[in-house]
Write a structure and sequence with these properties.
By secondary structure, the chain is of the alpha/beta class. The protein contains 14 helices and 14 strands.
Length: 367
């Protein structure tokens, strides 16, 4: 089987949608020999910042001589970037081989990807697997691991409300699902729902390591990483790694950001320059796009509202109507590439934001 054939097979499983629950992946992992329970897993849940924390932690462990697997999502440049070993994507040959072997399983796209990740890391004999939850925690397929060496909860906010709940407490309960008996948990400052995590840790005889709020999300994320490293007996680091589409700058005039919720917008606001901004914005219809726009749109001189190449995309015209409540100069543009071209002609700082799916589509135009 070629890599292209394998990629087509797993992408087609997207038609199954999102199916929370562990029954299917537990069955698949059992067929694989339960690889997730044969490796040391650092399990990371949260709404914002978990990709940065996971990648920085994996990088630090690798630089200290460990054989380290990293599992993150969503991807931006290459589908294989979701499964990395010591900073290198899983090879096309390995990816195709695993897909060929397990292609007939009863699993969603993310479940199959997760199972392959655990099998690959086990086969490669990793010292640590740094595993980011896809969504939530309790019913996320990554949570099939019996006992992680360490659980990590990053910033918790309202997101994926259709699956995780409509309140912060309900969402926090889902994130707390990765906290397991007789282990340890590092907790980002989550003042509004901290007590829920404290109660869960107490009930599970789980050591809780709480991070003091420094007042800056980037510094808080770094503190989370260093608390993890300190727990593992590894030297701490002085900065987090830079990731694609996380306030990513291209020269001095373009920023690409995939955050799509209110807390992500608040973080983005702190990074925007004090200049006229022309924004290309695309969002999913199942996100609280009005809350996001209420923060970002007033900072923009002009907005190009675009549709994203995804069935869940909010149509450009609907997004434009919503944006007009906060910015007077808004244009609906169906083609994101054309919108970027128009924005670059404006005498402004260009911001492309609102969705990792948009970032995935646009980033190659900026390289």
């Amino acid at each position: 089987m070629t890599y292209e054939e394998a990629l087509s097979i797993i992408i087609k499983k997207q038609s199954l949608g999102i199916m929370p629950g562990l029954s299917r992946i537990e069955k698949l992992l059992k067929e694989m020999g339960s690889p997730q329970n044969k490796i040391k897993v650092i399990h990371i849940a949260g709404t914002n910042g978990k990709g940065t924390v996971a990648s920085t932690l994996a990088d630090a462990l690798h630089k200290n001589g460990f054989n380290v697997g990293l599992f993150t999502s969503p991807w931006v440049d290459d589908y294989r970037e979701q499964i990395q070993l010591n900073g290198t994507y899983i090879s096309k040959e390995d990816f195709a081989r695993y897909i060929d072997e397990y292609k007939d399983c009863n699993a969603t796209e993310f479940e199959l990807l997760t199972a392959i990740m655990y099998k690959y890391f086990c086969d490669k004999g990793v010292d640590y697997a740094v595993v980011e939850c896809g969504m939530g925690g309790l019913e996320d397929s990554t949570n099939a691991v019996e006992k992680p060496v360490l659980s990590v909860i990053t910033s918790v906010a309202l997101d994926h409300t259709g699956f995780l709940g409509n309140t912060l407490a309900e969402i926090a309960k889902q994130k707390a699902g990765i906290i397991k008996k007789n282990s340890a948990t590092v907790l980002y400052p989550n003042e509004k729902c901290e007590s829920l995590f404290e109660e869960k840790c107490l009930a599970e005889n789980n050591r809780l390591i709480k991070i003091e709020d420094i007042g800056d999300f980037k510094k808080n994320n770094l503190a989370v990483v260093n608390a993890c490293l300190d727990f593992l007996g590894i030297p701490t680091v002085d900065k987090t790694v830079s990731l694609p589409a996380r306030q990513e700058l291209f020269g001095n005039s373009i920023m690409l950001d995939g955050a799509h919720n209110e807390d992500g917008a608040l973080a983005l606001l702190k990074a925007l320059p004090d200049k006229k901004i022309s924004a290309v914005i695309g969002m999913m219809k199942d996100k609280n796009y009005d809350a996001y726009l209420s923060l970002i749109a007033p900072k923009c001189s002009k907005i190009y509202a675009v549709a994203v190449n995804n069935p869940r995309s909010l149509p450009a015209t609907e997004l434009a109507q919503a944006a007009k409540r906060y910015c007077s100069n808004v244009t609906a543009c169906e083609n994101p590439h054309k919108a970027l071209s128009l924005a670059r002609q404006d005498d402004c700082f260009v911001l492309v934001c609102g969705s990792f799916y948009l970032a995935r589509e646009i980033r190659k135009d900026l390289m």
